[in-house]
Amino acid sequence: MVRKRRFFRCSTAWGWSVSATAGLALAWISGRASGATTVRAAELKISHLLQAAPTKLAALQELLAELKLAPGQCVYMGDDDIDAAAIAHAGIGVTVPGAMPAAWPPPAT
């Protein structure tokens, strides 16, 4: 039997909790499906969970269309190469220290 272990940072949970309290719509886009992610999203009251997304950009565009939002009306945070296009597409693209180099948005001009 193979056991999978998932780790979630408590600081991220705090940020999502504060954002939800402020009335912001929250979404979690994941490239793979995970029961642990489903449980954690429910605990954090994340209203939109997209799992097994073929690309993060396509999932973000789908979500923006569903919510009738323009890219400039959203913030996208990611830390891996697969997030790079979605980070660039969002009105505000955010990454974290230690993120893969491709995830870092280009400097503002």
Topology diagram in text:
Blueprint: H1 10-21, E1 27-29, H2 35-43, E2 48-50, H3 56-67, E3 75-77, H4 84-89, E4 92-94
In short:
With 109 residues, the protein is α/β, with parallel strands linked by helices.
Key terms:
109 residues, alpha/beta, two-stranded parallel ribbon, 4 helices
Question: How would you explain this protein's 3D organization?
Answer:
The protein is an alpha/beta fold and 109 residues long. The protein has a single domain (24-102), classed as HAD superfamily/HAD-like (Rossmann fold), CATH 3.40.50.1000. Helices cover 36% and strands 11% of the residues. The protein contains 4 helices and 4 strands, in the order αβαβαβαβ. The strands form 2 sheets. The protein has a two-stranded parallel ribbon with strand order 1-2. Strands 3-4 form a two-stranded parallel ribbon. Helix 2 (35-43) links the parallel strand 1 and strand 2. It starts with 9 loop residues before the first helix and ends in a 15-residue tail after the last strand. Mean pLDDT is 84; it is low at 4-8.
State the helicity in percent bands: 25-40%
User: How far from one another are the termini?
Assistant: 52 Å
The unreliable regions are 4-8
How would you characterize the largest beta sheet?
A: 2 strands, parallel
Order of helices and strands: HEHEHEHE
Q: What is the CATH-assigned architecture?
A: 3-Layer(aba) Sandwich
**CATH class categorisation:** Alpha Beta
Radius of gyration: 14 Å
How large is the share of residues in beta strands? Answer: 5-15%
Based on DSSP secondary structure assignment, what is the total number of beta strands? 4
Q: Which class of secondary structure composition applies to the elements?
A: alpha/beta
How many structural domains can be distinguished in the coordinates? 1
Oligomer: single chain
Could you give me the name of the CATH homologous superfamily? HAD superfamily/HAD-like
State the CATH topology. Rossmann fold
Q: Major sheet: order of its strands?
A: 1-2
Q: What is the average of the pLDDT values?
A: 84
Number of helices: 4
Q: What overall geometry do the principal axes of the alpha carbons give?
A: globular
